[in-house]
Amino acid sequence: MKFEINAKDPKSRARAGELNTDHGTIQTPIFMPVGTAGTVKAVHTRELKEDIKAQIILGNTYHLYLRPGLEILQQAGGLHKFNGWDKPILTDSGGYQVFSLSGTRKIKEEGVTFKSHIDGSKHLFTPENVMDTQRKIGADIIMAFDECTPYPCDFKYARESMEMTHRWLQRCIDRVDSTDPLYGYNQELFPIVQGSTYKDLRMQSAEVIASKNRAGNAIGGLSVGEPAEKMYEMTEIVTNILPEEKPRYLMGVGTPANILESIALGVDMLDCVMPTRNARNGMLFTSEGIINIKNEKWKDDFSPIDPAIGGYVSTFYSKAYLRHLVRSQEILAAQIASIHNLTFYLWLVKEAREKIISGEFASWKNIMVEKVSRRL
Amino acid sequence: MKFEINAKDPKSRARAGELNTDHGTIQTPIFMPVGTAGTVKAVHTRELKEDIKAQIILGNTYHLYLRPGLEILQQAGGLHKFNGWDKPILTDSGGYQVFSLSGTRKIKEEGVTFKSHIDGSKHLFTPENVMDTQRKIGADIIMAFDECTPYPCDFKYARESMEMTHRWLQRCIDRVDSTDPLYGYNQELFPIVQGSTYKDLRMQSAEVIASKNRAGNAIGGLSVGEPAEKMYEMTEIVTNILPEEKPRYLMGVGTPANILESIALGVDMLDCVMPTRNARNGMLFTSEGIINIKNEKWKDDFSPIDPAIGGYVSTFYSKAYLRHLVRSQEILAAQIASIHNLTFYLWLVKEAREKIISGEFASWKNIMVEKVSRRL
């Protein structure tokens, strides 16, 4: 998995790059739509590719492991074959969902035991079996098994958790390096920096992660409730240490403004459920600002949702029509809003990339952050 | 609105025709997807046109009148402009929904008073204002305001109701003929035959409706719980009387087998919520038979849903993947199943048309009725 840097912004740490995978090249900075259970909610595979122009999507190991289960996924020949998405897939380690969705869970050095939120059945995730699981799902990029600490988190817990995450990482590496890809294409492991909101822990963790010399590196444990300033501060500390020549993935981030600010700090890859989850609640991100489409003011606005970003959905349907669908609780409302929001997110990172290449990113970013954050 | 008959099947009453509207030509026999609240549920306008290859869709006057309301629809320039569907639209009269959805309703000679199922507000539908409403919605084909009798229905009620429907029809005609189209294209009224399951009432009603000499004629009050044989018997009686040279629309029908049998009796147009409603419950109609996709047997069937009928959804997604989506209660499940079922219905009537033209309809129909009715 080769990463090439095409351009660096002169006035920020932003860079434009290309990450080559066996399922094609990803142009960075990139936003990765979240496909929890093998589907980006309310979006067809074709729409993801042709309308949204996604280049890589996420799968959630926790969800896919429980349903449809590894047996079905292996019989299908992996997730790409199962859902028809033939571009790169990144899977998380399942750790985050085990902590957030599973009612009862026990963290031990060996791993985490938890109960399924679907049927209450008991399961054990270890660094080793989570590597095997992600191989079976068929991810191009496999995430290390870590503990994502909550916010706030006391220093002692954050330090001990980080140290365990580092020990788990070595077990992940040992497992991945002693096993083979399952479906004929390369599967690369990305380790994850933890350390909560503690500067020294973040530095320490970034050093450890950098020393492992993997194909890419991730920053976890942010966007979990801390103030945005804290998140940027931690991200900057970490991107200063993580190697320049490897892609950097900031996990679970965020709003359009968060994304632009993180790119300015040297982040190359991001993911978040926000564009799809908020879409299902009638919240639209547009190139002009944020729209709550349920508001009365849109009832007779027959202009397209966001003509500036292009794409079928954003140029074809009017705000008034979408508002009507949302109020009528029509499924199509979720479809249109999800496709629109993802189209906007992908448009935004593409614009960012172009501005990095043309050397105008920093000033453009400051204007855009204000624009995309305002409420219309 | 000109109707041309291209071919007649030598061994049945089936015919292939073309109905010319100001929004394009409809090739008959045709199935019309139901777009209740201005959207065919879970289906994008583009998919309706390019994947499903729908030629005309329905809108429900009751739903559209209540939400978004006539003011918004008129400001939009009619339903075509509002939802982006630029082919023909037929609207029902709202009568059926007033009777089935509205809690309290009172039928009088003047019209029907009812309470909205959304907010309990009180409304009055009359033959006259329902014509105005359909003009405002912007239908190419406007349906007469009638009473759809339930099944079973005693003879006296059926007769009196039919007689009122005939009186209402004259009021509809007077109103339509004394008002102009609102959006620059022709809007034609179709009267509706009633008479429950009584042969003499059906004959009487068909004679009255035929005598009005409108651009097309409809058969209502069937597919409301009566045995299929009774429905075919009534349909046959009526199609024997309704003029040959006008399109015949059998309302609210039905299963794939019902559709083929009705075509054989001389029906040209049909609509039903079944393909979309059943899709949302995991029931698929295919060229090989009926599939309950929730069944265990499909869990590792990685073959496409129905490659024989063509189209993106039916050839791209596997049965196992769709089953997974249904079990995971993913919105995409409703989308895939709805598009598939509608693609199948449109494929079926297109096949029927081709068989009528090639003179093989009757024998093909008998084989297909068995095939599409079996449970896989």
Give the topology, please.
Two copies of one chain form a homodimer.
Chain A: E1 2-8, E2 15-21, E3 24-28, E4 30-32, E5 34-35, H1 45-50, E6 57-59, H2 61-66, H3 70-76, H4 79-83, E7 89-91, H5 95-100, E8 105-107, E9 112-115, E10 122-125, H6 127-137, E11 141-143, H7 155-177, E12 188-190, E13 192-193, H8 199-211, E14 217-219, H9 228-241, E15 248-250, H10 256-264, E16 269-271, H11 274-279, E17 283-286, E18 289-292, H12 312-316, H13 319-327, H14 331-357, H15 361-373
Parallel strand pairs in A: 4-16, 5-6, 6-7, 7-11, 11-12, 13-14, 14-15, 15-16
Antiparallel strand pairs in A: 1-2, 2-3, 8-9, 9-10, 17-18
Helix pairs in contact in A: 6-7, 7-8, 8-9, 10-14, 10-15, 13-14, 14-15
CATH arch. level architecture of chain A: Alpha-Beta Barrel
Question: Biggest sheet of chain A: strands, sense, closure?
Answer: 5 strands, parallel
Oligomer: homodimer
CATH superfamily of chain A: Queuine tRNA-ribosyltransferase-like
Tally the helices of chain A: what do you get? 15
Largest interface: A-B, 39 and 39 residues
Question: What structural category do the secondary elements of chain A indicate?
Answer: alpha/beta
Any idea of the CATH topology of chain A?
TIM Barrel
Which runs of chain A of at least 5 residues are low in confidence (pLDDT < 50)? none
Rg of chain A, nearest Å: 20 Å
Could you tell me the mean pLDDT of chain A?
97
CATH class of chain A: Alpha Beta
Tell me the domain tally of chain A: 1
List keywords for this structure.
homodimer, 376 residues, TIM Barrel, 5-stranded parallel sheet, 15 helices, 18 strands, 43% helix, globular, TGT-like_sf (chains A, B), tRNA-guanosine(34) queuine transglycosylase activity (chains A, B), tRNA_ribo_trans-like (chains A, B)
